[in-house]
Design goal:
The chain has helices at residues 2-35, 74-89, 110-118, 131-140, 186-199, and strands at residues 43-46, 51-53, 62-67, 97-102, 124-128, 145-149, 159-163, 167-170, 176-180. 42% of the residues lie in helices and 22% in strands. The chain is globular. The chain contains 5 helices and 9 strands, in the order αβββαβαβαββββα. The chain is of the alpha+beta class. Strands 2-1-5-4-3-8-9 form a 7-stranded mixed sheet.
Length: 200
Amino acid sequence: MKTFRIAVWVGVLILAGFLGGYTLYLTKSKNVVAEAPFGVPFTLVSQSGQPITEQALRGKPTALFFGFTHCPEVCPTTLFELNGWMEKVDPKGDKLQAYFVTVDPERDTPEIMNEYVSNVSKRITGISGAPDKIAEVVKGFRVYAKKVPVDEKDPNGDYTMDHTASVFLLDSAGRFSGTIAYGENPDTAVKKLENLVSKG
C-alpha cells in the first residue's frame, strides 16, 4: 500500500512538472508573438509608384487601414476621420504615419490610389500592388476581404468588397498595439493615437 501511495505521488509530481513546463512554454510563445512585428514581409507599390516594403511600418507609430476606392461609405469616412485625428494628435506630422492598403488591386492602381487618397489627406499614403501580392498581405495581416457581386445573377459583372473596417495601430517596431473600430467615439480614437505616440 505504501509503495502504491509513493507511485501515485511520483505520478502527481511528474504531471505537475509537465503542466508547469507547458504553461511556461505557452507564456514564452505568446511573448514572442507579442514582440514580433505584426503582419508579413511584403513588396508593394506606393501611390507615387515607388516600391514599398514592410520597413515603411517601422520607425514611427503607424495607423494602417485596408479598404478600396469604390467603397461607398466606410473607407472615405475612415480616411477623413483618421486625417483629422492625426492633425490633432500630431500637428507637425513628424510623430505618426498612416497607410491605406487596397483590397481591390484589380481596380485600384497606384495612380487611382494617389488621386483618391490625395483628395482626402496629405498625411496618409495609399498602397497597391499585384493581386497575388495584395492577397498575401491581406491574409498575413489577418484582414477579411471578399469580392461580392453587385448582381448575384451576374457574378462576373460589377462588384463591391466586404472587408475589415478597423484601423490597425502599430508601434514604431511594427508590433500590434490595438485597433480603432469603425464608428469609434472620436475622443476615444484620439486618445488611442495619443497613447500610441507616447508609447513610441
